[in-house]
């Protein structure tokens, strides 16, 4: 408890230090919002009220696209749903406190339901980012057509106007929109810089590795889209009241595209860039549309192209990049946990067959792995070794036969479900998070054990001693605050191995874990793997081409040739086998 309290205290101090600039900026913005109506004319107040509502919409797009990698044109549909829910209630039922409360509730709930449906359609297993973008294109079009077909009920192409609204006045609507924008921007800034915010960036950078760390990427994406759909609906409620008119265009594809432009021009993954981009472009458009009614959109378009060509990071790209700063988190050793003992199989493979059309990659594979075993899979290139690991770690692969982990059939289970069963996988090419630091990657590896906070970053990382050994022997423990993009190939390999070990899986699948490492580093990695299996009871399946390394650490060797398991035995039996020698010499025949 004392260590935890100290950790939170240090984290709070770090947050306070980094949040000072945000506080000062927020205080200045709040003063401008509260005092603005004293020196702004009514037209400017109305325009900036709308612009600040649009700025909140741009932030929702930034959270989806900039931070999570979901390019969506559908936020306009949720905004339009909220605005129309408000206008329809006030038009057909009337004003009054109860009806305003009903309109507010529906303007949030209906877009959230719609967003949840869109999220479910977009992020089912193995859906692609392109598919999600297409879905987000279709929804605004369908909603706009529904508004057109609504006749007098929805106002059709003319929209709804003249309904009762909250009697706040232009000045107070300006203040309300401004305060809402400041609060939402500040909350978003805090969240994206928290440990939970790093999960969003992980999904953007490398969704496959995120899934193989046990992060349920589809659930996170659906939940985020649902919440931000509600925020968009709330913006629609403010818009319908402040503007006193709703039209089909606010729910359409064109408006959704505008939000993408605002976000790109302001600067993705920056929160404040898209907000300033939305305010600046909308206000500039309002000023130019009167004096240059046919030219101002062309000016905006040219500005957009110029920014993309010369300042691809948007307006925030004009500012100097902030280097990773702050004290590196402390590494805390977890007590070693022995895995379950006994000789019951941890993994059982029966009659595994994997084919792509007529091309058979694996055929009739039978294999059992028990706790404490370190099994190396060897064979020439193209034998099916990596495909075997993929089948063991992803139950959605189309196969024949059965694969069970601790007596549970993995058929149909996505990687994150198999991680929950105790399987960890290291890829052949190091799969890490390029835009993060070493420490952030390690913290993400602990996500299934420690729920990440929405409000701060932990100042310590608890890791099993084996992961700490890997970090120490490769020098990564001295590079915790450095970005992964600056690491050598060998260090990336070591980092990914440390991430897998940090998950504390029952069975570790390793695809060439020592590629790019020096001989000394390989020896030390071998010692770590032997300690994990022989002393702590972990199981491991290793693919490795360095036969000397394999002989030193393995208990069993499995030989694959042309997709078939041709030998499974002790190291001595396999190494001295004439069959294996003939396979490697290219003399074996079917």
Automatic annotation (TrEMBL):
The keyword Zinc does not apply. It is found in: Cell membrane. InterPro entries: AAA+_ATPase, ABC_AA/LPS_Transport, ABC_transp_permease, ABC_transporter-like_ATP-bd, LivM-like, P-loop_NTPase. GO terms for cellular component: plasma membrane. The keyword tRNA-binding does not apply. SUPFAM superfamilies: P-loop containing nucleoside triphosphate hydrolases. This is ABC transporter ATP-binding protein. It comes from Paracoccus kondratievae. Keywords: ATP-binding, Cell membrane, Membrane, Nucleotide-binding, Transmembrane, Transmembrane helix, Transport. GO terms for molecular function: ATP binding; ATP hydrolysis activity; branched-chain amino acid transmembrane transporter activity. The chain crosses the membrane at residues 21-40, 100-123, 130-153, 173-192, 222-240, 294-316. It comes from the Bacteria.
């Amino acid at each position: 408890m004392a260590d935890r309290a100290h950790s939170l205290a240090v984290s709070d101090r770090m947050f306070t230090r980094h949040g000072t600039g945000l506080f000062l900026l927020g205080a200045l913005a709040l003063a401008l919002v509260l005092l603005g109506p004293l020196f702004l004319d009514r037209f400017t107040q109305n325009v900036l009220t709308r612009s600040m509502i649009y700025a909140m919409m741009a932030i929702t797009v930034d959270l989806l696209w900039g931070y999570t990698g979901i390019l969506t044109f559908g936020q306009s549909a949720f905004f339009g749903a909220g605005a129309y829910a408000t206008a329809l209630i006030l038009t057909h039922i009337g004003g009054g406190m109860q009806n305003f409360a009903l309109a507010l509730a529906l303007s949030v709930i209906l877009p959230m339901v719609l967003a949840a449906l869109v999220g479910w359609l977009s992020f089912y297993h193995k859906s692609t980012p392109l598919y999600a973008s297409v879905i987000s294109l279709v929804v605004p079009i369908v909603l706009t057509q529904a508004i057109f077909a609504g006749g007098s009920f929805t106002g059709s192409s003319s929209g709804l106007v003249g309904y009762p609204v909250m009697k706040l006045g232009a000045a107070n609507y300006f203040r309300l929109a401004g305060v809402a924008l400041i609060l939402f921007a500040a909350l978003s800034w805090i969240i994206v810089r928290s440990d939970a915010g790093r999960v969003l960036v992980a999904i953007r950078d490398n969704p496959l590795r995120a899934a193989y760390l046990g992060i349920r990427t589809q659930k996170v994406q659906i939940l985020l889209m649902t919440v931000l759909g509600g925020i968009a609906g709330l913006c629609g409620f403010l818009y319908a009241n402040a503007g006193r008119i709703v039209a089909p265009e606010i729910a359409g594809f064109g408006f959704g595209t505008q939000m993408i432009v605002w976000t790109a021009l302001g600067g993705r993954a920056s929160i404040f860039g898209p907000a300033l981009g939305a305010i600046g472009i909308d206000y500039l458009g309002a000023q130019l549309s009167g004096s240059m009614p046919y030219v101002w959109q062309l000016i905006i378009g040219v500005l957009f192209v110029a920014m993309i060509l010369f300042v691809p990071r948007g307006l925030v790209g004009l500012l100097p990049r902030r280097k990773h700063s702050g004290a590196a988190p402390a590494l805390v050793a977890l007590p070693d946990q022995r895995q379950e003992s006994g000789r019951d199989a941890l993994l059982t493979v029966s009659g595994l067959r994997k084919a792509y059309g007529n091309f058979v990659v694996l055929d009739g594979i039978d294999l059992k792995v028990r706790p404490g075993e370190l099994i190396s899979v060897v064979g020439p290139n193209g034998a099916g070794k990596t495909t075997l690991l993929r089948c063991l770690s992803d139950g959605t692969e189309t196969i024949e036969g059965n694969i069970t982990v601790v007596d549970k059939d993995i058929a149909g289970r996505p990687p994150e479900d198999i991680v929950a069963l105790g399987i960890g996988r290291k890829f052949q090419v190091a799969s890490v998070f390029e835009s993060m630091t070493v420490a952030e990657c390690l913290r993400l590896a602990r996500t299934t054990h420690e729920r990440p906070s929405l409000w701060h970053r932990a100042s310590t990382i608890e890791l099993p001693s084996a992961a700490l050994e890997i970090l120490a022997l490769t020098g990564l423990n001295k590079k915790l605050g450095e970005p992964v993009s600056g690491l050598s190939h060998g260090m990336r390999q070591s980092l990914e191995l440390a991430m897998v070990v940090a998950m504390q899986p029952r069975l570790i699948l390793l695809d060439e874990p020592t590629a790019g490492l020096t001989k000394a580093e390989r020896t030390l990695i071998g010692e770590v793997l032997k300690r994990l299996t022989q002393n702590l009871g972990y199981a491991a399946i290793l693919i490795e081409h360095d036969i000397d390394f394999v002989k030193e650490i393995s208990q069993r060797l499995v030989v694959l040739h042309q997709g078939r398991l041709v030998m499974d035995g002790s190291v001595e039996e396999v190494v001295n086998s004439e069959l294996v020698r003939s396979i490697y010499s290219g003399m074996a025949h079917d």
